[in-house]
Amino acid sequence: MGLGAYLTMFSTRARLDAQPNKLTEVLAHRRATGSRLIDLTASNPTTCGLDYPNREIGEALASGARSSYQPEPLGIAAAREAVAAHLRSRGESVDLCDVMITASTSEAYGYLFKLLADPGDAVATARPAYPLLEHLAASESLELVQFPLVRDVRWQVDLHELERVLEPRTRAIALVHPNNPTGSYLTRNELLAVAELCAARGIALVSDEVFHDYPLEAPDGRAPSAVECDLPCLTFSLGGLSKSAGMPHLKLGWLRVGGPERLRREALRGLEAIADDYLSVATPVQIALPRLLEIGASVRDQIVSRCRLNLRALRASLTAERSIEVLPVEGGWSAVVRVPCLTSDEELAVALVEYFGVVVHPGYFFDFDRDGHIVVSLLTPPDDLLEGARPIVELVSALAAP
Questions:
Q1: Does 228 share its domain with 279?
Q2: What confidence tens digit (pLDDT) does each residue in 299-342 have?
Q3: What are the two backbone dihedrals, phi and then psi, of residue 240, each rounded to the nearest 5 degrees?
Q4: Average pLDDT of the chain?
Q5: Bridge-partner residues for 305, per DSSP?
Q6: What is the DSSP secondary structure assignment for residue 226, as one 8-state letter?
Q7: Which DSSP letter does residue 363 get?
C-alpha cells in the first residue's frame, strides 16, 4: 500500500503531508553535522540564560502536589483569584467570576473556537501574525481569514480591509495585543472600532494578551486590556504563565471574559461545559499559582531588561548598514528588521545559515505581504545577539555591492 493510501486514513488536520522548506532542510543538515548555530530566534525563556528561582518554584509545586485532586472545569477558586489579583496589579478591575483557568493559551483558543464556531466557520485575524493561530483554527476545522496591519507612523489595524473580509460565517475576530512580531499594541480607539464591528455582527472579539506585560517602546506605556475597555461585544482576553512569568514548562493559562453581562454568563456556562470534558489543568500548578505569579515577577523583570538591552544593541549593530532598519517595538519579545529587497527573505535566511550559522525568521513565516523583513528574538542571550548581528550587516552589504 502506498503512502497516499495510508494518508487517507487520517484527518487533514494532522498535516501528515507537510513538506520541509529550504530553510528547515539547511538547518537540519547543519545540526546533523554538528556545526554551531547562533540562534536569533530563541523564544524559550528557560533556555536563554536567565537566572531562574528554581528552588522557590520547586517548593511551590511541591506544596501544590500535596493537595487532593480538585476537578473544577473553570479552575480552582484560589487559582482564579490569583489571576484576578495579578491583573489587578496591572491596574485592572477584575471579578474572579469572569476568569477561567486553562492548561495553556493554545487550549484557551481551542475552547473559544469550540464555543463560538462550528466546523466550516471562519475566524478573522491580522497579519503579520505568528503562524500558530492558523494551525489552531485548522485543528477545529475552521478557516482563518486575514486582514492587514498597515504601517504609517506605527502599525495599526486596516479597518476597511477588516470589514471587507468579514462574512456571515465569520464568528470571531482574534487580535494579538501586542502583536507578534510587530510589537504593536492596539489603542483604545482601535479596540473600540473593532468591537463595534463585532457587536453589529453578533460576533466575539478575542484579544491574545500574552505579551501584555512587556512594554518596550510604547509611547504611553502598556495599552489597556481589551476587557478593561468596556466594549459593546462579547470579549475575551488571554494570558498565561508562559509569558507573564516566563514559565512555559508549567502549562497554565487563563482567559477573562468581558462584554454585556448576559453574554458573559452564557459564555462561561458554555466554557464550563466544554472544559468539563477535559479537566486538563493539573491541580498542583493551580494550587501553586499564587506563589508562582509572585516568583515570576523576578523572571519577568529580567526579560524586560534583556529585551530593552538587546533592542538598543540590535539597533546599534545593524544600523552600521544604512539600508537596514530595526522597526519600533512597542512591546513583546521580537524585533522586525527591515532589509533591502536584494533577494527573497527565505534566500537571505538560508544564506545566513549556510555561510554564517546564524538563524533568523524570514518575514514570510509571519505572513508579511512582501519581502524585505526578517524577525529576531529579543530574548537571545546578548553575546549571541551581537555575534549574530554582524553577519546580517556583512551579508546585506555584500548583496548591495555593485
A1: yes
A2: 999 999 999 999 999 999 998 888 999 999 999 999 999 999 98
A3: 175, 170
A4: 94
A5: none
A6: T
A7: G
Classify burial at 28, counting beta carbons within 10 Å of its beta carbon; exposed 0-12, middle 13-18, buried 19 or more: exposed
The radius of gyration computed from the CA coordinates of the chain, to the nearest angstrom, equals: 22
- Given the C-alpha cell 488571554, which residue does it identify? 238
pLDDT confidence of residue 81: 97
Is 64 contained in some domain? Answer: yes
The sheet carrying 325-326 orders its strands as 325-326, 334-338, 373-377, 361-362
The confidence band for 2, taking pLDDT boundaries of 50, 70 and 90, is: low
pTM: 0.94
Give the domain extent around 250: 54-295
Measuring CA to CA, how many Å separate 39 from each of 322, 329, 349, 380, 386? 24, 20, 12, 7, 11
How do 143-151 and 122-127 pair as beta strands? parallel
SS3 assignment, position 347: helix
Question: How much is the pLDDT for 321?
Answer: 87
Residue 150, domain member (yes or no): yes
Residues 291 and 356 in one domain: no
Residues 147 and 156: their CA atoms lie apart, in Å, by 11
Instruction: Count the domains in the chain.
Output: 2
Q: Is 253 helix (H, G, I), strand (E, B) or coil?
A: strand
Instruction: Kindly state whether residue 191 falls inside one of the protein's structural domains.
Output: yes
Domain boundary among 243, 277, 295: 295
What cell does 295 get?
516568583
DSSP of 293-346: HHHHHHHHHHHHHHHHHHHHHHHHHHTTSTT-EE----BSSEEEEE---SS-HH
Last residue of a domain, one of 295, 321, 355: 295
**Which cell numbers hold the place of 252?**
497554565
